[in-house]
């Protein structure tokens, strides 16, 4: 199989799988259940015009989003993948709200979360979404790199090796990140207990600590990434001077 | 350095984290950590850090249009990612076989890749390939590409092919153009080679009077005594003046007027050197600023050591002296001259200089160049060959130069001692039928100028490299 076809196949697989999983999850949320009568009212006439039963609105939505997902994949550009990610996140949000500590929806209207899926299921779907987002984002970059190198006169066999290597690297990185995230998620109840002991009696509410913590993480990440670049440049500088070892 | 894509990922991660905080949602918080962990791992397993290049070929001296081959091995260490390396070739090199650019995937283990190529060198010159360029990339472009060069020196000296003229076979085509009949050394001893019979001049020895010829002439009409003139010991001298002004660049990089002019200069040099002539070369630039002050000796005559040091090479640029009378720089400061000499050594010197000639190589106008060489011209009455492209809009400098040359031509002016070798640059530059017509029109426009030059006594030889060989151009010009 041609490497480009293989990459496109992977893209299609992750795009359809993530959209399907997130749509199925959304259809099982309390928020969707609350608004389903309205959805039937809106989409019912369309279904009837096609000769279908309005009660099949769930399947209709599933097919609709899958078709959209396919169209975005067919577009193949980074902007199209951004739209796919937005669509997936819109469907994912109602399901993740069901597992929030604060019921913000209840402030707007009477709402009690009664999810039909477990938290680990939703977390798994979330991981799939992030994986899809990163995979599609980087496969688009792989294509750009491939085109650029091809334009510079690289041979196709070499380009195939590079593309396969990049895909392998991406898969390893995504799986490693998913494993680490799962470990963090699983370990969180224990960390929560430890933090509760440490932070009890702290004069500031947890929200402020959380926001400060978030920005610290972001800042530390940027510093880490910049520091990593500097280390690489030093290695290169020694090579430029022609000292092999 | 962080790329824009990475900043977007960080922003998306932080957004998840903040939303998770506000909603008290552990899933969103961990999903926010996901891109950050992803980036951190990406940095941890960074791009390749060390590229070592080894070149296997060797330095070569070749002729124009010959081929050279080279092999390069790259060893990549550290990190993971695509690596490219390329041996950047001069514009005038044409890749015939293999590749000078390679992309390879560097996995967890050390990677080694070899490339080979064969190129045709289409233009003369000295080409030094200093280094092999390389580029390493992060597999996901998380960090910027690293560019570098690894020193791997390779030198190619591409010599121009002289346009050889062996001899003219066609009797009808015998011309006075090629040989410097009048050229002689001023202070040489007379040899036994008879040159001519001429009128007696005060100072001529009585024993040189040819009484037979004198008597024969006196029997018909009154005339002066006739004396025998013999060739002086020494070599006939030829001076080649090569124009390197901007208009000589007409044409493409590989095929332009200057290239043909250089080949013509080498052809002339080869022709005359093979006939035991002394050949000197002077490179000038028509567009160079012309000195308007008086000309006077600007440097102390060199001693013997200095003279010997310039035997093998063209004169080193001399630090210009300031003339006390005018407080301006000496016009001899940028001379590009090879003084007349004979033999293969001189041929080699001229060839070596021609390898380096490029547009604006000479730093003096024609008149200034002649004045720079006058110490070696005076008294020798040599043959002057000016290789240029005649342009109606640029004629003053040429006329000034020819007038200056006339000062050094001996009293025997019946033979042409100045050849203006006109390389028809418009024809060289023309690539389509319409352009050929335009080139012809421009040459027609130059005809009054050519006529004027001929009236001054110069021989104008026009050469269209597209339709004529060098020898044909010389044959067609009958004096």
Which helices and strands occur, and which strands form pairs?
The complex is a heterodimer of chains A (245) and B (479).
Chain A: H1 3-26, H2 30-49, H3 57-75, H4 78-97, H5 105-108, H6 119-151, H7 156-199, H8 206-240
Helix pairs in contact in A: 1-3, 1-4, 1-6, 3-4, 4-6, 6-7
Chain B: H1 4-23, H2 26-44, E1 50-55, E2 60-63, E3 67-77, E4 81-86, E5 93-98, E6 101-106, E7 111-121, E8 125-136, E9 146-159, E10 190-199, H3 211-220, E11 226-232, E12 237-243, H4 257-273, E13 278-284, H5 304-309, E14 337-341, H6 343-356, H7 366-377, E15 383-388, H8 396-406, E16 418-423, H9 425-429, H10 433-455, E17 459-463, H11 470-476
Parallel strand pairs in B: 2-9, 12-13, 12-15, 15-16, 16-17
Antiparallel strand pairs in B: 1-3, 3-7, 4-6, 4-8, 5-7, 8-9, 10-11, 13-14
Detailed description of the structure:
The complex is a heterodimer of chains A (245) and B (479). With 245 residues, chain A is mainly alpha-helical. Chain A folds into 2 domains: 198 residues, no CATH class; 30 residues. Chain A has 8 helices and no strands. With 479 residues, chain B is of the alpha/beta class. Chain B folds into 4 domains: 41 residues; 110 residues, Immunoglobulin-like, CATH 2.60.40; 257 residues, von Willebrand factor, type A domain (Rossmann fold, 3-Layer(aba) Sandwich), CATH 3.40.50; 37 residues, no CATH class. Chain B is 30% helix and 27% strand. Chain B contains 11 helices and 17 strands. In chain B, strands 14-13-12-15-16-17 form a 6-stranded mixed beta sheet, sandwiched between helices. A 5-stranded mixed beta sheet of chain B has the order 2-9-8-4-6. In chain B, strands 1-3-7-5 form a 4-stranded antiparallel beta sheet, with no helix packed on it. The interface between A and B is large, with 67 and 65 residues.
